[in-house]
Design brief:
8% helix, 493 residues, Porin, 18-stranded antiparallel barrel, mainly beta, 2 domains
């Protein structure tokens, strides 16, 4: 049977390549980057103090990603777009091809690394349950064969009254860059332009829960998660403004009667207004977000012994705001920004923050090189996050913060851009047991040189004066300042 399918696929490929070329136009675009990183001490712990948890020390590595987007013009006003990422990895990371017990290759297994991925038994993509399970030994991470990840495939139709998009396409991008993540979700969206106005409606499927679930969660048909957007934007010559209304209905935590887990639904209502304006050399932009809803609406009719004991439902609300001003004197420029996001009061049952984390919003916004810089966290993890059990410090999203930054830059030639940034941040609310709320002060120096129009090289250096927030709930913790160096080569096409 296997040979039959191999022959059938081969015949199909021969037929496809022998057919006449399609009349459809095809356009390619994308990017490739290589990043080099050095982090002196991401744990922020005093390296000379061995009385606390481990994790201290320097780390350095290279990281890369290739991204290719293909647009097929099927007919006038009708397009099919696909996008994939390939070789998104740290250089020298052999976990997906290592054939021994350990997730990283060792000198003893170097000879087997290149051929391990071609073994028939290597089909697993999760860590082995135990070290004595031969079937999954060595299959700790994604296989080499699965190294191309298709993220987008969608149809765009330019209709007489607007533009329709259907499929897996771009999401979490609205207004300014502040709350953008620019990710992919399956959705149906319609944008209708009327003069300077644009009206948008969008439905997104965040989770399909009627499939086989884990621990009996997801066995019931209504355990889905859906997001609904309605937005309006007005664009003038030198300014634009708009507002997005979003409703999220998540039932992904619904459990069956047999589950020994709490069963609850989550709803969220949000409004996100923004503006952008240019007045000669002065640029100003801002965005706000207000949200409210029910964080946990317990289903007491399902397994009452578990859910009724949870007590009343947990509501949540909060707000956040962003303002950025820039003055361009050519060749010099300077500016300032401020971000505020409410934190959760640990003395109340309800939740007063966490909006950005809940919507996975803001990963594309990197105001500094260490604090709230998602590429840095992808490589090293959030600063100060040692172990989730004993020290749950996380700075993945700009929740619970007051962030202030000033910067000055110069462009001595069209190819150069050099900027110095100084940032200071504190928590809006101290978590339970914490004695301090200051994240710290960070100084960044970034220089970018455009080698070609499509090829640039960036060098960055950052120094963080660590605040006592990172002591967490252990006031005797000895902290240390952190510095980081990085450089990046970026090709766009």
């Amino acid at each position: 049977m296997r040979k039959f399918w191999i022959v059938l696929i081969a015949l199909g490929l021969i037929a496809a390549f022998s057919m006449p070329a399609s009349a459809a136009d095809v356009k390619f675009s994308g990017s490739y980057y290589v990043q080099g990183w050095y982090s002196h001490n991401n744990s922020l712990l005093d390296q000379d103090d061995t009385s606390t948890v481990s994790g201290r020390g320097a780390a350095s590595l290279f990281h890369q990603r290739l991204r290719v987007e293909t647009q097929f013009k099927v007919a006038e006003g009708l397009f099919l777009t696909t996008r994939f990422d390939a070789l998104e990895r740290n250089w020298g990371d052999r976990r997906e091809r290592n054939s021994n017990l350990y997730p990283y290759a060792t000198p003893a297994t170097a000879a087997t690394v290149e051929t391990a991925s071609r073994r028939a038994a290597h089909t697993y993509t999760v860590a082995p349950a135990t070290a004595t399970t031969p079937a999954v030994i060595g299959d700790y991470a994604t296989q080499e064969q699965a190294n191309i990840e298709f993220e987008r495939a969608y149809v765009t139709a330019n209709l007489p009254f607007g533009q329709l998009n259907v499929g897996y396409y771009q999401d979490i991008q609205w207004g300014t860059l502040w709350l953008d993540t620019i990710t992919t979700r399956p959705a149906i969206g319609l944008a209708v332009p009327v003069g300077p106005w644009t009206f948008v409606a969008k439905w997104k499927k965040n989770l399909e829960g009627s499939m086989n679930g884990y621990n009996n969660i997801g066995y019931i048909n209504d355990s889905d998660s859906d997001i609904y957007d309605v937005a309006v934007r007005y664009a003038a010559k030198s300014w634009e403004a708009g507002v997005l209304f979003e409703y999220g209905d998540s039932r992904g935590n619904k459990a069956s009667d047999q589950a020994a887990y709490p069963s609850f639904a989550t709803t969220i209502y949000a409004a996100l207004p923004y503006f952008k304006a240019t007045f000669g050399p002065f640029y100003l932009e801002g965005e706000g977000a207000y949200f409210f809803g029910t964080r946990m609406a317990y289903d007491t009719n399902v397994n009452p012994a578990v859910n009724a004991a949870r007590g009343e439902d947990v509501d949540w609300d909060g707000w956040s705001a962003y303002l950025h001003a820039k003055y361009d004197l050519k060749p010099m420029y300077f500016g300032a920004m401020i971000v505020y996001a409410t934190g959760d009061d640990p003395t109340t049952r309800d939740v007063e923050g966490g909006f950005n984390s809940a919507l996975v919003a803001g990963q594309a916004f990197t105001p500094a090189l260490i604090l709230w810089n998602d590429p840095y966290y992808t490589v090293f993890g959030a600063p100060g996050g040692r172990t989730a059990a004993t020290d749950p410090i996380r700075l993945q999203f700009m929740d619970n913060c007051l962030f202030v930054q000033g910067y000055v830059g110069v462009k001595p030639t069209p190819k150069w851009d050099i900027a110095l940034k100084v940032s200071w941040a504190k928590a809006d609310e101290k978590p339970a047991g914490y004695e301090d709320d200051v994240y710290g002060t960070e100084v960044d120096l970034v220089a970018t040189y455009k080698i070609f129009d499509n090829l640039s090289y960036m060098v960055g250096a950052a120094y963080l004066f660590t605040g006592d927030y990172f002591k967490g709930a252990v006031p005797t913790t000895n902290l240390e300042n952190q510095y980081m160096l990085m450089h990046q080569l970026t090709l766009t096409f």
